[in-house]
Each structure stands twice: as structure tokens, then as C-alpha cells.
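Honest question from a wet-lab person: if I give you the sequences of every part of a complex, can you actually get the arrangement of the whole thing, not just the pieces? Trying it with mine:
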Amino acid sequence: MEKEKTDKKDHILDVAERVFAEHGFDGASTRLISGEAGVNMAMLNYYFGSKEGLLLAIFERRTTMFHGLIQNIGNTESISSWQKVEMYIEAYINRMFNNNCFQKMLYQELALSRKTEVTDKITQLLMLNITEFRKIIHEGIERGEFGSDLDTDMMIATLFGTKNFLVNTPHVSSLMFGFDMTDQANLDDKLKPRMKNYLTKLLKAYLLHENDNSK
Amino acid sequence: MEKEKTDKKDHILDVAERVFAEHGFDGASTRLISGEAGVNMAMLNYYFGSKEGLLLAIFERRTTMFHGLIQNIGNTESISSWQKVEMYIEAYINRMFNNNCFQKMLYQELALSRKTEVTDKITQLLMLNITEFRKIIHEGIERGEFGSDLDTDMMIATLFGTKNFLVNTPHVSSLMFGFDMTDQANLDDKLKPRMKNYLTKLLKAYLLHENDNSK
DNA sequence: ACTTTTCAATCAATCGTTTGATTAACTTTG
DNA sequence: CAAAGTTAATCAAACGATTGATTGAAAAGT
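Yes, you can. This is the full assembly:
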């Protein structure tokens, strides 16, 4: 039973990811997690050593999945910088909406002051995404395609922050938008295309008309 | 000693607000809070009834302060809609940077699934801000000042989300921007003006050039 | 004299973790 | 192939530590 063991561990990780996202790390007790997963409480420590180890295991699993998905848009030569930005937005949103619970858990952990092994690894992972975006924008500026008075890092904060606000504060955003933001179907069918459309227009306006005072 | 009592309660609220922001509600024990505040643990229950009551008291205090600050930009007739947006951004950022810990605490609470009295009140408070912004944008659209194909609610998510990302994930944003985001002096001197400048340009580009395909 | 505030001590409950026994699965051996 | 032996997985029970909260008495204030 080598296969089933992996399946069971994966199932625990799935459940724990969701429970951590819903209750936060401190608010999610090991009894709650094991109960939701339908396994004995001792199995968590048997498989992952500790609660912290469980968190780390969740992160490691997603990280290896992520690294397989990274596509170096920046190194492509044949397309315009704006097209690269469009591709980045598309890829970013697609990636984010596939790990809803994980993303939520991740930013809850980042909001706390404590520095742990997990916190550092999260930071490193985010910086990968950030570096990729920076490269695209700076190239666009050098090419003269974008204006020169751009705040690249602020754009990243906008990109990441807009998504986080919508997904991580579902009580508010559901009320704003008129549909349940905790329902994955709504996220995929309604929010996702709307976000792509909006963010593309927003960044396009900023990147291409930022120095334009004609109006 | 009527005055000192209020002072001491206020001091506890100050400390608790910070500790909640740093550790989250579940991660902040009553012993830690009382220890940091330099008061006996039993004082928390004596003054606020329970840990939850303490959280509620923190919120109530800020709410009454907020309601005194609300200025109805929307109802002013003599200025352009764009000027109103500029005023809104200015007022929003000024307000946010005065309650750093509170804001952080607030969004940590919103990220959790549990629905409490506090959660509902937070939602109501945010909706006030949202409604005000909506009014300004819709007026601008009706006046023909802005394009008609705007996503107002997404703009709100951008406004709130950009700020949240910068302030609520200090580990990452400090690394991005090269200065310590947990230092209030840096926030006031460096981040605040940069954010105002950026958000103004970003929204201006989106509001005024959104339908422009000349480039 | 009386009320309010403060405190150390303690409460029951819950926390993450460990234990030792039991069961299941696989390997070795006769 | 089947019995014995070995390892891995699972479980109820309990561990010490910490949690939020309460107590009743002492201290301070009026």
C-alpha cells in the first residue's frame, strides 16, 4: 500500500489547507483538522511530526506544483512588452484561482509578525513572481513602449492586492458584488473573467496613458 | 478617579489593538496582552467582560472616531467628479495610515470564516466607504466625465487591496520597497506620498483613458 | 463606611503531543 | 502455499502545558 498512503496524506493536506484557510493557523485545532479529515488525531503527528510540520508540508506540496508551472514570459523576444503583461495577468489569475484555500492561508500567515521557516519560504516564492513582473515592465520602459514615470512595485501591490481583497475578505466582497465569493463556481464563472478584463484595462491605461495629459 | 480609569482602559485598548494585529485574535493570549499592557490579567475581564468583549471594545472606539471623520464628498456640487476622486483617495489614505494596527487586525478578522458581531460591524463600516466611492464614480459617469465601461467595484478592490497588501504583508513589501514597512515613520514619509501619487495616476488613467485606443 | 480597583491563586476546558496496545500489510521462511 | 515474523498504520487514552475566565481577599479611592 504505497499508493494509498500518499493518497491519505494528500487528503489530510487538502483538508488541513482548507481548515487553516477558514480558521487561521492558531484557530484551527488539530482535533478539528483530524475530525474533518476523518482520521485519528495522532495521524497528524505520525505523518507530519507536528502542527507546524503539517503547515510546512502543505506549503512544500504547493511549491513543487508551482515551480512546474513557472513559464519565463520575460525571456520571450518576439512579442511586445504589453503582450507580455497581458500574458502575465492571464497566467497569474489562472494560477491563483486554482489554489484558493492555499492563497488565503498563505496571506493569513504573512499578516502575522512571527517569522518561521514557512514565512521565509512564502516570501521567497512571492519574490519569484515579483521579479518576473519587474523584468517585463523594465524591458517595456527601455524599449520606450511604456512611459518612464511608472511605479512598478506599486503595480505589483495592485495586482496582488486586488485579488487578495476579493478572495480573502469574502464577507465584504460577496456583499459588494452580489454573489457568493466562497463558491468556487462563482469565482471561475463570474469573478475570474471580470478580473482579467478589469486588470488588463487598468494596467493598459496606466502603462500606455500615464503621461498623457490630453484630457 | 474617573479620568484615569478612562486612560487606563484606553491604554489597554491601544496595546490589545497592537497585539491582536501582530498575533491575530487566536494567537494573542490574554496573558500576553495583559503582560504587554502592564496590568493584571483579571483586569481585561473586569473591564471588558471577555476576550471577545475586548475585541468589540477596540472596534467600538475606532468606529466612533471614524464616524466623526466621515465627510460627504459626494454631496458637493461645485467640483468635478475627478476632483472628488482625488479628494477621496487623499482622505482614504490619510485615514488608513492613522490606524495601522487597527486596520491590520480588522482584515485578519475578515479573513476568517467565523461570523461574529464584530465581523458584521466591520462589514457595515466598510460598506459605508464603498457606497461613498460608488456615488462619486456613478455621478462622474452620468456627467460624461468618465467613460461608461468602468468597473466601479473592482476599482474599490484595487484601492483597498493595494493598501492592504503593502501594510498587511510587511515581510514581503519591505523586501520589495527596500525599507521597513512596520516603521510608522517610513509609512508616513515614504509610502504614504508614494501611494497617493501612484493611486491618483492609476485611477486617472483608468477613468479618463479607459476607452482610448489611440495608442 | 463604602465602593471601586487590583491582585495572586485557581478553575475547568482545550491545546498539541505522546503513549502503548491493536490491527493491517507485507516479507520471510519452511 | 501457508504459517511465522516484521514492519507500518491506526486507535483510544492520557500527558503536561496553556487557554480564557473566576474567585475572594487586599488595596486604593471617595
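Two things worth pointing out. The mean pLDDT of chain B is 91. Residues 1, 5, 8, 39-43, 46 of chain B lie near DNA strand C (CB under 10 Å from a C1').
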